[in-house]
Specification:
By secondary structure, the chain is an alpha+beta fold. It is 35% helix and 24% strand. A hairpin with a 2-residue loop joins β1 and β2.
Length: 356
């Protein structure tokens, strides 16, 4: 996809006589639609190797903000003769790069369903003039190829993820049936085999303390009514597991102190109590991190925590992902967690029951 978009941008800047161009792709974070730079400052002389934008240098623009955000929000092109005279133009990028934008033409990139999947901009018409209707027409025709390429690439990534998921599930199915008497071994196996699905540095799983095994098998009339905790602090966690994704150290069983007093366990209880996802995009949003001794070595930058349900859709724990590589957690990461067997009801409920 990157090579296709690069070729489109170099052809466009050449045909319309633009000095350079940039391409953004859409992304969702915390329910907010964003534009994220994919190709930046492409010129007619650029090579693919030098222009593939470093992920650590991403430019992020929310939908509706600035010229790029307005184009993405309205799906309408914007053609400006003098960028600095337009109040929507954000001068910050020019200040960082040292480049001076004069004229600018921005168009949305749409998929087959008419949804915005990206945006492209070309800057500074050569010869000191501005972009005209012919330039806009050429630009729009070329972006049609970009839209098709992006959608095809996204479909391909989905098929790859589905293939990985199916391979992991098949492998785990054999392992789970071999380990049905041990919760610890089952969770260890799931976390180790599922690492390929995650794009973060740490994964933690907390399990709530469930009823005695014979309580579940009693007739409904004889069962003790379920107690709903009055607050997150009242939720009892029976165990916690941690794995560092990029290392081969295996799964670590958390200590009782870490489960009772650690911030990650506290966040897990809150998510279990509320029964809804929590996405902390910056450590600044969670001041308790600064005082937590158990996460100090992790250097937590961001985290996502979701409740884990069993086959009866009852909450049995919570799964946390920490430190998304290169950026924040998105809906794609939520999809990855939900296909992970630990979050998709793959563990037989009987394994979780406390024995006499």
């Amino acid at each position: 996809m990157e090579i296709l978009c690069f070729k489109v941008m170099t052809n466009v800047v050449t045909l319309v006589g633009a000095d350079r161009g940039s391409l953004f792709l859409t992304r969702k974070e915390g329910g907010q639609k964003l534009l994220v730079s994919k190709l930046f400052d492409v010129t007619a002389e650029s090579t693919a190797a030098e222009i593939m934008k470093s992920k650590e240098m991403e430019v992020i623009v929310p939908f509706g903000r600035g010229i790029a955000g307005s184009v993405a929000e309205t799906k309408q092109s914007i053609n400006i003769k003098d960028a600095y005279s337009d109040a929507r133009f954000n001068q910050d990028v020019d200040k960082v790069t040292g480049y001076k934008t004069s004229s600018l033409l921005a168009l949305p990139i749409l998929n087959r369903d008419g949804e915005v999947v990206g945006l492209a901009e070309i800057m500074n018409k050569k010869g000191g003039t501005h972009f005209n209707a012919r330039d806009e027409s050429i630009f729009a025709r070329y972006l049609t190829f970009c839209g098709i390429g992006i959608q095809n690439a996204q479909l391909f990534e989905m098929s790859v993820q589905e293939h990985i998921r199916n391979q992991i599930l098949l492998k785990l199915a054999r392992g789970i049936f071999e380990e049905q008497q041990s919760l610890e071994r089952v969770v260890h196996k799931i976390l180790i085999e599922s690492k390929a699905l995650f794009k973060c540095e740490h994964i933690c799983v907390f399990i709530v303390e469930l009823p005695l095994e014979d309580e579940e098998t009693r007739p409904d009339a004889e069962k003790v009514p379920k107690h709903v905790p009055a607050s997150p602090a009242k939720i009892v966690l029976s165990s916690g597991f941690h794995i560092e994704v990029n290392k081969d150290d295996g799964v670590r069983n958390m200590s009782k102190e870490e489960i009772d007093k650690g911030l990650l366990a506290t966040v897990a209880r809150e998510v279990i109590f509320e029964n809804r996802l929590r996405n902390i995009v910056s450590a600044d949003e969670e001041p308790r991190l600064a005082e937590d001794p158990f996460t100090k070595d992790m250097g937590v930058r961001n985290l996502m925590c979701i409740p884990v349900h069993d086959a009866k859709n009852e909450i049995i724990g919570a799964c946390l992902m920490l430190n998304k590589q290169l950026r924040n957690f998105t809906e794609l990461d939520l999809d990855r967690v939900q296909v992970c067997p630990c979050s998709s009801r793959a563990i037989p409920r009987g394994i979780f029951m406390r024995k006499h």
